[in-house]
């Protein structure tokens, strides 16, 4: 597939990672300059750097990371010509269709080639992907990309309306994936293209439930079994590190200290109020009653058994004040859901076509099969 060398070479397709939402593919072409949000990056500066490196812009105002492409990164970076399949759906479809090294898979339509790249990697050099689209320009662009990414031996790409003309393949595929506006129209052709000696599988992607209902009806009419539909949602998480909260003992000590200070302030206020009251009483006695004064000890007399409250000692001599907290508290890793969900909701309808000897007879649409079979035989050579 893509370059496996440790360093970037002229002509390599690389992924430029400028941020979570700015991921771009680039063919390294000496002499050209990539102008991005974070400055200008001459392609020459990328040649020879290790894949995964951080590269600074010409004026060192910004930077980006140069990454080796993978099907997952390609899905995030590819030029969109259509709606595409994202990782959650791709992974689920691949798993449910039991696609593995050596599998023969059919997909329609090719679209932007997001699904094609992942499947081509999974089937490996011993498997094959037949990919169809009825849009000529999309076929041409996908062909260039598959060639550039070294996938042309694993993918046969054909310009074809699969609903009208079928796949031109007979008893050939282990699995079929349909991402079309009207997949039910292609279901009779899927039946012909799937192998009749194994339990072969199909998946139809549909964004709305009305399409699912028509697809399920078509699958039933064509003898498919174990028909199941799943709704698929993607909730990516963002992970980052925050300062860890101080240990509980430190927090309780800080609370105790603040309680002690508040109690000392309260006792001081009581003592001052008592002093003021005593002063007022003495003045009143002197002026009005002329009676001998009670000799209360002065509240500030050292050592006296004054009613002035004494400072409350520290409840815990080992406590640490907040000021004693370390300058660089340890960090903890937290995770939260990213609000903008990139993968959209889909319905994925799966079904199995049992080996021909186990298919229910009541479902045999013999006339239809014969017609499509004849046309498939004629067209098979044009696909290969
Ligand atoms: C949503 S896109 C497929 C995206 C693709 N799964 C991906 O991951 O990039 C649907 C494609 O199906 C093609 N298409 C629609 N009807 C078709 C038909 N009857 N035969 C062949 N291709 C068809 C469209 O031209 C379009 O490119």
From TrEMBL:
* Polar residues bias spans: 367-384
Which parts of the sequence are annotated with region: Disordered?
A: 262-332, 358-384
Domain tRNA (adenine(58)-N(1))-methyltransferase catalytic subunit TRM61 C-terminal positions:
62-352
Q: Name one GO biological process term.
A: tRNA methylation
Question: Which sites bind S-adenosyl-L-methionine?
Answer: 133, 179
Question: In the Enzyme Commission scheme, what number(s) does this protein have?
Answer: 2.1.1.220
Keyword Phosphoprotein: yes or no? no
Q: Name one GO molecular function term.
A: tRNA (adenine(58)-N1)-methyltransferase activity
| Reaction catalysed by this enzyme | adenosine(58) in tRNA + S-adenosyl-L-methionine = N(1)-methyladenosine(58) in tRNA + S-adenosyl-L-homocysteine + H(+)
Q: Please name one Pfam family that this protein belongs to.
A: GCD14
InterPro entries annotated for this entry? SAM-dependent_MTases_sf, TRM61_C, tRNA_MeTrfase_Gcd14
* Matches recorded under CDD domains: AdoMet_MTases (cd02440)
Here the segments flagged for biased composition (Low complexity) are: 295-309
Q: Its principal location? A: nucleus
Q: Which SUPFAM superfamilies match?
A: S-adenosyl-L-methionine-dependent methyltransferases (SSF53335)
The entry's keywords: Methyltransferase, Nucleus, S-adenosyl-L-methionine, Transferase, tRNA processing
> What is the enzyme's main class?
transferase
Q: Where in the cell is it found?
A: Nucleus
Query: For this UniProt entry, what's an example GO CC term?
Result: tRNA (m1A) methyltransferase complex
Would I find S-adenosyl-L-methionine among this entry's keywords?
yes
Functionally, this protein is described as follows: Catalytic subunit of tRNA (adenine-N(1)-)-methyltransferase, which catalyzes the formation of N(1)-methyladenine at position 58 (m1A58) in initiator methionyl-tRNA.
Q: Which family does it belong to?
A: Belongs to the class I-like SAM-binding methyltransferase superfamily. TRM61 family.
Protein name in UniProt: tRNA (adenine(58)-N(1))-methyltransferase catalytic subunit TRM61
Question: Organism source for this protein?
Answer: Sistotremastrum niveocremeum HHB9708
């Amino acid at each position: 597939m893509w370059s496996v060398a440790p360093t970037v070479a002229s002509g390599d397709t690389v992924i430029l990672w400028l941020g979570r939402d700015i991921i771009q593919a680039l063919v390294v072409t000496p002499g050209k300059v990539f102008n991005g949000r974070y400055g200008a990056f001459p392609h020459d500066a990328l040649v020879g750097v290790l894949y995964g490196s951080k590269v600074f812009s010409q004026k060192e105002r910004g930077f980006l990371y140069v990454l080796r492409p993978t099907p997952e990164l390609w899905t995030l970076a590819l030029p969109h010509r259509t709606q595409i399949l994202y990782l959650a759906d791709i992974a689920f479809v691949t798993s449910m269709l039991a696609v593995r090294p050596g599998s023969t898979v059919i997909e329609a339509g090719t679209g932007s080639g997001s699904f094609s790249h992942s499947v081509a990697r999974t089937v490996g050099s011993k498997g094959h992907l037949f990919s169809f689209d009825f849009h000529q320009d999309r076929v041409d662009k996908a062909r260039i990309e598959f060639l550039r990414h070294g996938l042309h031996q694993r993918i046969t790409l054909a310009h074809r309306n699969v609903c009208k003309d079928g796949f031109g393949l007979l008893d050939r595929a282990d699995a079929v994936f349909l991402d079309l506006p009207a997949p039910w129209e292609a279901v009779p052709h899927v039946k012909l293209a799937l192998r009749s000696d194994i339990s072969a599988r199909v998946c139809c992607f549909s964004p709305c439930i009305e399409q699912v209902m028509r697809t399920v009806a078509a699958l039933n009419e064509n003898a498919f079994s174990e028909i199941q539909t799943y709704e698929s949602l993607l909730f990516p998480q963002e992970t980052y590190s925050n300062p860890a909260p101080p240990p509980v003992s430190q927090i309780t000590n800080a609370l105790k200290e603040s309680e002690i200070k508040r109690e000392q302030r309260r006792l001081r206020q009581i003592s001052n109020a008592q002093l003021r009251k005593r002063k007022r009483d003495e003045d009143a006695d002197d002026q009005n009653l002329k009676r001998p004064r009670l000799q209360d000890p002065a509240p500030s007399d050292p050592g006296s058994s004054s009613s002035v409250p004494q400072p409350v000692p520290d409840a815990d001599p080992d406590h640490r004040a907040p000021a004693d907290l370390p300058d660089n508290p340890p960090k903890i890793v937290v995770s939260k859901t990213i609000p903008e969900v990139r993968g959209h909701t889909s319905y994925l309808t799966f079904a199995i076509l049992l080996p021909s000897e186990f298919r229910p007879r009541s479902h045999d649409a013999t006339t239809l099969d014969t017609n499509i079979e004849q046309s498939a035989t004629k067209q098979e050579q044009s696909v290969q």
